[in-house]
Amino acid sequence: MSVAKDEGPAAPGVREQKKRETQRLLTQTGMRLFLEQGYNETTLDQIAAQAGVSRRTIFSYFASKEDILVASSDAGWDDILGDIGRASREEDPLQVVCGCLLQRVSTRSNQDLLALRELMLLSSTLRSRGQAFFVEREHAVAAVLSRVWPEPEMQWQIRLAAMAGVGAFRLAVDTWRDEPEQASLQALAELSFTRLKQLLSAKD
């Protein structure tokens, strides 16, 4: 009976993994086609065909090309949230957030990020969704931090850590977006986090 109980929850896990793999495949295929033949020239049917799935399948994951592009910008955030969730309670919440964000930047090439940046600036709708993205990520980071530090007295500090960490990262992204040739996003993120820490230290 113990074996049966162990096997019970496994099936949903496998299905969820397959779902994530299909979503990742569609996102990667979409980005490749956007870059190869242009965003406006690419259709959802082409993405489905290149990914080897049906039109019905792609609409189970994405309602539009915009959704695929936004999902591409979200790549890596599941890993960030996972890393934050595994943080030691002995660490400082803000240090955890900054460290995990820097790790994310270091895993993506500046060329890939530049290509994504150009695509996200194609329309006002995409630009607006890009701005809303950081607000959503701030709430997600705060939620994960709250699971590591669930004490009520820690919630104020946790919200501030999420706001400050994600806000400093957003400042680096905005600076890099306007002048990407001046420095890499990783270098600007490191600078932004350093200045944030200096500012907080000066207030102590």
Automatic annotation (TrEMBL):
Signal peptide limits: none
Sequence ranges assigned to domain HTH tetR-type in this UniProt record: 20-80
Protein name, UniProt field: TetR/AcrR family transcriptional regulator
Keyword DNA-binding belongs to the record: yes
Keywords, comma-separated and alphabetical: DNA-binding, Repressor, Transcription, Transcription regulation
Superkingdom of the source species: Bacteria
InterPro entries noted in UniProt: DNA-bd_HTH_TetR-type_CS (IPR023772), Homeodomain-like_sf (IPR009057), HTH-type_TetR-like_transc_reg (IPR050109), HTH_TetR (IPR001647)
Region (Disordered): 1-22
PROSITE patterns: HTH_TETR_1, HTH_TETR_2
Native organism: Comamonas guangdongensis
Residue spans binding DNA: 43-62
